[in-house]
Design brief:
It contains 4 helices and no strands. By secondary structure, it is mainly α.
Length: 89
């Protein structure tokens, strides 16, 4: 697969699924660095309009990152509390 084709494929996936760089990397079995380079450096030369839309999704994801992290921490400690309560029974 050509790099330009991959960049368009990744950009389309991110846009359609409102996906993170990490999710796109996992979906296609490539590194986060490759995904980021493709959509932020290569895609603007190939399809500028798609690149702009993908950039907006990535900015939104970046702004929400702290919320997802907080939710993950909350879930972790809820599970620990639940396991602790079961062990006391």
């Amino acid at each position: 697969m050509y790099t330009s084709d991959r960049a368009v494929m990744l950009g389309t996936y991110i846009l359609e699924n409102q996906a993170t760089v990490r999710a796109a990397a996992k979906k296609y079995g490539i590194s986060k660095s490759t995904v980021h380079k493709d959509v932020s450096e290569r895609l603007p030369y190939i399809q500028p309009e798609l690149a702009g839309q993908v950039h907006a999704v990535l900015l939104k994801n970046k702004q929400e990152r702290h919320i997802r992290g907080g939710m993950a921490t909350k879930k972790k400690y809820a599970q620990l509390r639940q396991a602790h309560h079961k062990s006391e029974e």
